[in-house]
Amino acid sequence: MVYASLKYDKNGIEKGYTNRILEVDLSRKKINVKTVPKEMRTRFIGGRGYCLKLVYDGTEATTRFDSPENVLAFSGGPFCGETGFAGSGKFIVGAISPLTGTFCDSNVGGHFFPLVKLSGFDAIAVTGKSDTDVLIVIDGNACEVSIKSAPETENTLLEAEALTQQWNGVGKLSNVAFVCAGAGAKNTCLGCVNSVYYDVKRKRCRAKQAGRGGTGSVMRIKGLWGIVAKCDTAKNNANKPADRQRVRDAGKKLRQVINDVDPKAMSLCTQGTTALIDMMNAFHLLPVHNYQYGSDDRAHQVSGKVFEEKYFKQGHPDGCFAGCNLACTKGYDEHKLLTGPFAGTTVAVDGPEYESAANITNLGIFDIEHMFEYCFYCDEYGLDTISTGVVLSFLFEAYERGLVTKEDTGGLELHWGDAGTVMALVHRIAAGKDAFARDAGKGVRHMKGWIADRASKRNGRTYEDIMAELSLFAMETKGLEFSMYITKESLAQQGGYGFALKGPQHDEAWLIAIDQLNGELPTFKKKAMALKWFPLIRTWFNMVGLCKLPWIDVRHPEAKHTADPSKNLPTIDYYLELVNATLGTDKGLDDLLTESERCYLLHKLINLRQGFGTRKDDAIPLRAMAPVFMNEYVSRKAYYESYLTDTAGLNIRAKNDAERLAMLQAYRRKEYEKLVDEVYDEKGYDWHGIPCDETLKRLGLDQPENREIVALARKRVQQDN
Fold first, then answer.
1. Who contacts 590 (Cβ-Cβ below 8 Å, separation ≥6)?
2. Would you say the pTM of this structure is higher than 0.90?
3. Are 525 and 476 found together in one domain?
């Protein structure tokens, strides 16, 4: 059934932009095409900037994730779809999140948004709620957008080829792509958005995920099954830069660096991001047993080398969009499912990415087949592998510590390393058919209260006492679950997680390597400066439609000769070439950082408007800073004794282990608070983490409505204190 349709005049791409936004109101079944205001384009650029602006303008302080006016926004950027440069298939999905209560976004690759852009749109804004599941179809060939009945299936990935063929018409399968969210997204707050495209090399559909923050759940709450984009316009040269040859030259230089450096360094081209497993384990950064430990002797069983030699097909490009020779989008085409509704079926599994694999080590499982099992079902159900896995590891530890019982779990015993129980819970959470699973599907922050309420009624301890214990090892901040790095020994990465505006994920500030592995941030000042600079440059990548991996994980050989090697400035020069060659401008790095800082500040304002965003919201659990329990301390006792003596300068000679652990915890907490002060000063915030008036003015965000948001936030903290 067709509920609504709209013919439109396609605006061709010029210098990376179509200057059109597609607006769809699902409540009224209304479709509209809007011109991007010039001020929006020049000030917020695209991608994350457009998503922020659309959500900010379309929502209010009272908007919740399930409010009809909540804007589900999709946007690429001026370089999304540029085939002459590596990593250009990226786009952003953003909305008010069911986990954080404020703006959260996630970046994802694939062919979907390049096809949306070829069809004539720089962004999509979906509002309203349909009373029946629907599908939005963007037909760039017919220049028509329609709202139709959704497919009668929840098997979004299992049936991806059939669906793509159905929507294909007479075009190539690679000219059709779609985004969707499965049944798990519909039944939880942990929903991811799958970006599905046809891989002509593997001759099957593949999927990348916008995982964080529950944007897939927002999609399904709106009654939106998915969005299809189809367009037969050739992708090559479609971005219409001001100077095509200059773009090609910059892209060639970047690809040469990738060719020269990656095989000798990360090996992403052959191992994908599973290459990180060995590195993280070697430096005590691989999460094990809910972040209690950072390494395990069994890690060699899930080494990136094992993935490369046994599971990942080599010999053809594995990039998620044309022009990228990093080719880190690995996959395994012959996994036989062990559990669940499709047990016995042989399926193709994309990834696993490091984050997904490390969720399995975090549960004490070191088996690649179970990594594939977990990834496939999370993707098929539309569940974020990170948030789902951290919920499970939190529950396993709470069970281990006697705060969760078999009565709570419906008869399941939760023991580390039990893959069968892990998958049983994944299936239950996705289905949402029992009370325990439904609550678990609301995330770690919700489950803290759920566990404390039940445990306090049966063991004589107060709710507040149990909440205090749970909060020590509940790995969430701002309502979002931590991504997969042990941060106990990296103060910079602690800040990277704590200050991240959408919660503790590495998208905004991945400093673990340059701080802990390379030792390039030895002072508080350097850490504070990095915690301003890196979120801004990484935000910039999300604004313009580019992947960060060719910059952050492939260091240019000449970077070591610069004053700050971690910034990889020789490669940044290639990105500046791309900017100016595409847009016909003469921008420098400071211009890009200012544009990024403006978007970053807009996100901060949304957080403050929604009632969050101050110093208390930047707090992180103790386990992110130090060992919580004695077993963690004892596992690296010699290291911690040396740290207390040599780094902290404390006299521990007459102290027992319990006293030394307490000293370590107190010292690490103090160090984090000192870092907070330094970073707020660097960013132009006051002591409470609220932007100063001069910061609003400097970035052109001192309009009356923004000043009012800041004034109300200051009033709140004064009342709290």
1. none
2. yes
3. no
Confidence of residue 720 (pLDDT cuts 50, 70, 90): confident
Q: Looking at residue 425, which CATH number applies to its domain?
A: 1.10.569.10
Q: What angle do CA 665, 666, 668 make, to 5 degrees?
A: 65
Task: Report the pLDDT value the prediction gives residue 319, as an integer from 0 to 100.
Answer: 84
The domain total for the chain is 3
Nearest 5°: phi and psi at 627? -60, 140
Neighbours of 263 (CB within 10 A): 12
Neighbours of 344 (CB within 10 A): 8
pLDDT at residue number 413: 97
pLDDT tens readout for residues 437-487: 999 999 999 999 999 999 999 888 999 999 999 999 999 999 999 999 999
Tokens 């299809």 appear where?
Answer: 228
Buried b (16+ CB within 10 A) or exposed e, 363-395: bbbbebebbbbbbbbbbbbbbbbbbbbbbbbbb
The number of angstroms, rounded, from the C-alpha of 25 to the middle of its chain's C-alpha atoms is 26
Domain of residue 211 covers 2-230
Phi and psi angles of residue 693, each rounded to the nearest 5 degrees, phi first: -60, -40
pLDDT tens digits, 504-539 = 998 888 999 999 989 999 999 999 999 999 999 999
Pair type for strands 144-149 and 134-139: antiparallel
Backbone φ, ψ for residue 719 (5° rounding): -65, -40
DSSP string, 532-579: HHHHHHHHHHHHHT--SHHHHSS--GGGGGSS-GGG-HHHHHHHHHHH
Strand pairing category for 204-210 and 193-199: antiparallel
- Are 328 and 391 part of one and the same domain? yes
Residue from 694, 673, 691, 671 nearest 683 by CA = 691
Q: By 3-state DSSP, what share of the chain in percent is helix, strand and coil, each rounded to 5?
A: 50, 15, 40
Q: Are 590 and 249 in contact (CB under 8 A)?
A: no
Kindly state whether residues 317 and 381 are assigned to the same domain: yes
Q: How far apart are the C-alpha atoms of 622 and 213, rounded to whole Å?
A: 22
